[in-house]
Amino acid sequence: MSHPALAVTVDLVVLTVRAGALHVLLVERGEEPFLGRWALPGGFVRPDEDLPGAASRELQEETGLPRGLVHLEQVATYGAPDRDPRQRVVTVCYLALAPDLPVPRAGTDAADARWAPVADLPDLAFDHDVLLADAVERARAKLEYTPLATAFCPPEFTVAELRRVYEAVWGTTLDARNFHRKVTGAAGFLEPTGGTTTRDGGRPATLFRRGPATTLHPPLLR
Amino acid sequence: MSHPALAVTVDLVVLTVRAGALHVLLVERGEEPFLGRWALPGGFVRPDEDLPGAASRELQEETGLPRGLVHLEQVATYGAPDRDPRQRVVTVCYLALAPDLPVPRAGTDAADARWAPVADLPDLAFDHDVLLADAVERARAKLEYTPLATAFCPPEFTVAELRRVYEAVWGTTLDARNFHRKVTGAAGFLEPTGGTTTRDGGRPATLFRRGPATTLHPPLLR
DNA sequence: CCAAAAGTGTTACTCGTACACCCATGA
DNA sequence: TCATGGGTGTACGAGTAACACTTTTGG
């Protein structure tokens, strides 16, 4: 049977929380088109790998993180005929949530790489501003009803650190006392490690790790 | 630049409510592989059309409905290397919600077509059981916080008809009186047309059309 | 009149929010 | 002892669930 063949790529929206603000990993393009412009990391899907595998491989190539430590989920697929001026490219966009990482190294075909604050972005190559906006909205929505915010935290964290993640992603301020009750009361969300820390000053705060829950009951509201 | 070329298809999960139960449009395959097995309708993306355009065209070819009358949204993309035994195929799955339609005609490359109850399905070709399950779960979730249930209704409908949609999609029963208060109280969900009908028997019911709201405040809960 | 479905009123309970208040540490 | 953030108690209002009750039609 005959059929049109298209190029298929995977693009990544890698988010982290740094200095109280949501940041995204961008790479500077080292070739045409959009030479010198900032873009989302990504690359072609290889013939022998599936879509999550391609996303995971690209993520490792860009961040150097071991696979499996970072939350990774598919967001949407974009395939307008003119979105790449060279050829027809359909791209599957993945969202990755990572704890605060060292400044990334440049990838194989990228001139440079950096964390950019989502609130103050440069013009992006291709339709990557749309991909990014959709992925950020997905992340914001998922914080409400899943324990995904813990993906931004180190293995052990305090309730205040978790709250600052929510405040950074949602761009709001939350009542620290009600937030504490809600997250510690949601079954399976947080497990105390037994330890405490005073790294935030004041009274020692209980340290938690992520619990087994996959959804939050009741959900946290923006 | 060199890159691997893949086939890209669009598959459709077309849902409707018939006889109080959720149904999906299936086609019988007229060629190998999976000859004679039931599958989701779909086809290759053409070089000159975007993804929503391909989904809309396939939908029209399978149902004969004019474009734009049916809700259509992307669900997810599937690309395991072995999901089609002939060749590498990446498929973008779309969800369509339609009012009760006449029995569909067979498409161009389908031997037959029918509405199948989602609660009692045959074995499907390829990984279409997964695509279907993901799309149905998306539809169920969206009824909670969007006015999407109206996409299953004719242009003018009663609150009871809308309630039977929710009951069919969720597989639950709902309190008719509380449901009435909730949907008529949600701003922008329903607009009275001024007319009434007794087609359900009993006291005449007010007829409504879909309102301008895109999200429901407060949401309806399962 | 009776059955059936539409639509309203009422009550008890749950949950989110706001905020007063106390606790445990470092300086 | 004071400042700082951690954590608890409590009261008020909004929203939900359960269900008694009234309304308006067809037969």
UniProtKB/TrEMBL annotation, chains A, B:
Nudix hydrolase domain residues: 1-138
UniProt keyword annotation of Protein transport present: no
Region (Disordered): 190-222
Annotated keywords: Hydrolase
The keyword tRNA processing belongs to this UniProt entry's keyword annotation: no
Entry-linked InterPro entries: NUDIX_hydrolase-like_dom_sf (IPR015797), NUDIX_hydrolase_CS (IPR020084), NUDIX_hydrolase_dom (IPR000086), WH-like_DNA-bd_sf (IPR036388), WH_DNA-bd_sf (IPR036390), WHD_NrtR (IPR054105)
Name of this protein: NUDIX domain-containing protein
Protein species of origin: Kineococcus endophyticus
Classification lineage: Bacteria, Bacillati, Actinomycetota, Actinomycetes, Kineosporiales
